[in-house]
Write a structure and sequence with these properties.
about 140 residues, Nuclear Transport Factor 2, Chain: A, 3 helices, 7-stranded mixed β-sheet, alpha+beta
């Protein structure tokens, strides 16, 4: 496994675990600021850690309200754009307490790879699952 593959896998393992545990600090560490989060409904430009914390807290609140008890990743892959940037595609399934999918979608992440051994999310855009792409390098995450 290449060093880039290790960086991307470590980032999204931390991200998935943070979301499952609703660990706000762990998920915040996965993003660089400024960054952007895009859904079909809106684009959020996050300028600083304070805005990032508020945005993620609202997402966690929505997941709690929906009684999400598990998050599955049936498919994840990435492609290196250059030595400092990876494009990651993930198929997400958010499972509620009735074991039904509360939400299922794909997301594409622009990830900055640093020479310091870390990776950070710079931009994420969510799409309908029908838009999912499979890139060259697969990633095995958490419970999948």
């Amino acid at each position: 496994m290449s060093i880039e593959h290790q960086k991307v896998t470590a980032l999204f393992d931390k991200y998935l675990t943070g979301f499952i545990k609703q660990d706000l600090f762990a998920v915040m560490q996965c993003y660089q600021t400024p960054c952007t989060l895009t859904t079909p409904e809106e684009l959020k430009y996050i300028e600083d850690e304070n805005q990032l914390e508020q945005t993620l807290a609202a997402i966690f609140s929505q997941l709690s309200t929906a009684h999400v008890v598990d998050i599955k990743v049936p498919q994840a892959s990435f492609e290196l754009m250059d030595q400092n940037l990876a494009l990651v595609a993930i198929h997400w399934q958010f499972i509620d307490k009735s074991q039904q999918a509360f939400a299922e979608f794909c997301a594409f992440y622009h990830v900055t790879l640093t020479s310091f051994g870390s990776a950070k999310i710079r931009h994420v855009i969510s799409h309908e699952i029908s838009e999912l792409k499979c890139f060259h390098s697969t990633i095995q995450l958490g419970n999948n």
